[in-house]
Amino acid sequence: MILKNAARAAAISTAILAGMVTAPGQASADTTGPVVSGIGRVQTDTGLELTAHIDAPAGVTSVTATITAQTASVPKSTVTDFHLISGTATSGTWQSSGSLGLDVYASYRVAITAQDSEGTVSLPGRGLLAYRPSPVFHDTAYEPTTLSFEHQDINVHGRVTEYDPAAGDIGTPWPTPAGLGVFVTWDGHTSPRYATAADGTFAFTVHPGAVQNTTLHVSFVDSTAYAEGPDSEPITSVDSPARITLDRTGSTGAPVGSTQVISGTAEGQQEDGTWVPVANAKLLVQADVGGAWVTTDATGRFSHTVPVTNDTTIWTVSEMRPFLTPTSVSYTVANPVAKVSLYANKPTVDAYSRLHISGYPTFPGDWLPSGRVYIQQSNDGHTGWTNIGSTTIGSGGFAASVLTVTNPHGYWRYYYPGAPGFTAAYSPVVHAFRYQTAISGGKPSHTRVTKRHTVTISGTLKQNGYGSWTPLPKATVQIFFRPSGSSTWHLITSARTSSTGYFAAHPTITRTGTWRVVYKAPDQVHVNAYGPMVKVTAI
Length: 539
Prior knowledge:
The chain has no helices and 52 strands. It is an all-beta fold and about 550 residues long. The protein has 5 domains: about 20-130, Sandwich (Immunoglobulin-like), CATH 2.60.40.10; about 135-235, Immunoglobulins (Immunoglobulin-like, Sandwich); about 245-335, Immunoglobulins (Immunoglobulin-like, Sandwich), CATH 2.60.40.10; about 340-430, Immunoglobulins (Immunoglobulin-like, Sandwich), CATH 2.60.40.10; about 435-539, Sandwich (Immunoglobulin-like), CATH 2.60.40.10. Strands 34, 35, 36, 38, 39 and 40 form a 6-stranded antiparallel sheet that branches. Strands 42, 46, 47, 50, 51 and 52 form a 6-stranded mixed sheet that branches.
């Protein structure tokens, strides 16, 4: 039979929508007649055939189907050739044989009635038949059905041909344009739609993700038809060995408040035993103080910066990627040391070459072991550092120190030698400036002098800044005398230095005692200078 190829409907229709009437078709209320239910269809090699489930206590003797176009009132075809395919005549499934007698692709109303051995005819069971060509699947395959680290994609391929409801599968390919065609669904996910080729074949790849046990369902859809193909075998998965290799496994003695970089490579093992990088893997780096997710790059490398806290911390790097055995490694920040910082306030030096210096520390916690801090001096601020004193740490910082220094224009800093759990520390270098002064000579010309005779006390006053020593001109030096047996110094006279720093004084000797020349700085830029103490005996 050659069918008229009516326009295919734009909407997708189901083959049969069984809307059964189950009221019996008997003549009176005290008799029981056949009941038709479960209207359906079967695609056979020769075309569509109808099915129906019929319950009839008296046994079915005949089945009749009338097929009417949806828009018509007169049946298009009547089918009476039904045979029992399962069950019994009292309760079984019946199927039509041969052609349905339709010559136009269209939607039809189907009504099926049954008559039993007592002559009772059932009320009709009703349904809707979409009588038009439809796609059918052939040679559908899913490969592989076991997912692993090496094989995380499934290849789906097969062929779609046309099924003619009047003639069966005629083998004609069913091609589709892009955006329509075959797709698969699983666990609430749907793949894109893939077109079939001119010969009806299709082939595409899906990435199911981290599935443990699922089934793929293949379907077909275009503007005129919908069909479902065979399901896959159960899709399972296996886990492969994994490992994380750290560039280093930890540190000891890192300063508190600093940071550490945890880095390494994540790898998975292939079936042949080869270890390969795991790209774009999510790794969890965590400890009691917190954690974060990091992602490996294309070479499996990762890097994450963590803080160094007051206590030993064990960081765990874990990988929980699908298809890989969970694995983890540890990075230990052991015995961290608290960072100590020292600061010095701007110092001053007075006329007596006394250094006045103070400062303060910072460190984690409330207590610093061995709370003694040393004061160091250097002539140039870079080399030759020596300890010149020490101080202790108080509640407000270092106890202020006053130290006599050999260089009034030197450089100073604080130094903490460290202690278990605490770093050593130096303060920034600080500087103060006064000219250093010195008296050359300054001794009496004689040490035994007749009373009421004079002696000459002469010498040179010098100064030194950042360079060499130079004369200190136009300065006043004082001549002091302390009588023997006394502790009191008396100012006897003074002298003025020349342009070369030279001075001379001529005191009269009246009694035995000690003489000394003193320069007392009259400004804020020099320090005092003292000549030698020399005893002169009056005779």
